[in-house]
Design goal:
258 residues; TIM Barrel; eight-stranded parallel sheet; 16% strand; metal-binding
């Protein structure tokens, strides 16, 4: 299995990261994508990836932190992406739930990342919350200027964003949210996504799946995300994990080329 979204530099893992990774490998996780949420965390994220042959990383600024990196240029992201372990741009996008950064800063940040994804040929890891229409509008506008790979990560959006993203060739990742009883709307959308466009993630240390909901999440819980998708699609876990791993490797092409 490939856990395509792990926040391994998080404080929650500061005391026992080696043990967390060992449990994940025992559970069958063979690849990890360590996510960069702030540009000033990039060196830390990259160092974790460099220490482990089965971990790769991204470079980017989460929309919450857009206000802190208004001077960040797409050229800086492109330069960072030259590192062999850096296989995607992001996470980036729009999040209007908390409003930690204003809309203008988030939009500018998002477009800079899209430019870097287009210039490098690396996929864009998109975080979106309560911003479906504007996210889709920006993706379509930018895609018309030149194609780039898209991952709608930890998908909780509506049907329209999913449909518009899929029309641009986007992949959709599912997390432990898929197993929550309250996530009926998410499941109804994911049911419409072609299985060859779905990948798995934990988004650890957040969003632990049932039966661990409410605890610190970790990559060893990825099989439970797979179980939720298997239940939704009427397939066996092994088939789901095989399909989703192949999808992830197709999306993150630099990973297999490195």
């Amino acid at each position: 299995m490939f856990d395509t979204h792990v926040n391994l530099h998080a404080e929650a893992f500061s005391e026992d990261l080696d043990e967390v990774l060992a449990r994940a490998r025992t559970a069958g996780v063979t690849r990890f994508l360590a996510i960069c949420d702030r540009y000033d965390n990039y060196d830390r994220v990259k160092s974790i990836a460099n220490e482990h042959p089965d971990i790769w990383n991204t470079v980017g600024v989460h929309p919450h932190h857009a206000k802190d990196f208004t001077d960040l240029t797409s050229d800086l992201l492109v330069a960072a992406a030259n590192d062999e372990k850096t296989v995607a741009i992001g996470e980036t996008g729009l999040d209007f739930h908390y409003g930690y950064s204003n809309e203008a800063d988030q939009v500018a940040n998002f477009r800079r990342h899209i430019s870097a994804a287009r210039d490098t040929g690396l996929p864009l890891v998109v975080h979106t919350r309560e911003a479906d229409e504007l996210t889709a509008d920006i993706l379509e506008d930018e895609y018309a200027r030149g194609a780039f790979g898209i991952l709608l990560h930890c998908y909780t959006g509506g049907q329209d964003l999913a449909d518009r993203g899929l029309a641009l060739g986007a992949y959709v990742s599912v997390s432990g949210i898929l197993s929550f009883k309250s996530a009926r709307d998410v499941r109804s959308v994911i049911e419409t996504v072609p299985l060859d466009r779905i990948i798995l993630e934990t988004d650890c240390p957040y969003l632990a799946p049932v039966p661990y909901r409410g605890r610190r999440n970790e990559p060893s819980y990825l099989p439970y995300v797979a179980d939720a998708l298997a239940s939704l699609t009427g397939r066996e876990r092994a088939e789901i994990t095989s399909i989703c791993e192949a999808n992830a490797l197709n999306l993150f092409k630099k990973l297999t080329a490195s």
